[in-house]
Amino acid sequence: MSGHKSSFRAEKKLEAVEIPAGGTAKVDVDVPGVRSGDFSFVAAPCDLQGLLCSSYAHKNAVTIVLYNPTKGAVSLDSGTWKVKVVR
After folding, report:
1. In terms of Cα–Cα distance, which of 6, 66, 14, 4 is closest to 35?
2. Is residue 55 part of a domain?
3. Where are any strands of DSSP class E within the chain?
4. Residue 52: what pLDDT?
5. 67: in domain
6. What are the strands of the beta sheet with 39-43, ordered from one edge?
């Protein structure tokens, strides 16, 4: 298996957010050159406190999705989220 042909990185500062029990939050991070089908990875700047984090790449962006499966609201402080995409 050969190495990755292309990789992309980006960061985005997000303001503090509270996600209610059973709720979701989504944010797009601009990543020029990325396309659907690329693999995306996310580095959170804080403890996710039980939140589930996923991401997906699409044309020139990555969407980060946070889901709260807990029984209470979860508050996250502001911070810089990092994404890496490989093709």
Report:
1. 6
2. yes
3. 7-14, 17-19, 24-30, 39-43, 52-58, 61-67, 74-76, 79-86
4. 98
5. yes
6. 7-14, 79-86, 39-43
CA–CA dist 61, 38 (Å, integer): 11
Neighbouring C-beta atoms of residue 66, cutoff 10 Å: 21
38-50 pLDDT per residue, tens: 999 999 999 999 9
Residue 5 counted as domain residue: no
Q: Is the dihedral of CA 17, 11, 54, 26 positive or negative?
A: positive
Residue 4 lies in a domain: no
Q: Give how many domains the chain has, as a whole number.
A: 1
Nearest to 21 by CA among 50, 43, 46, 45: 50
d(CA 45, CA 40): 16
Domain residues for 27?
13-86
* Chain-centroid distance, C-alpha 60: 14
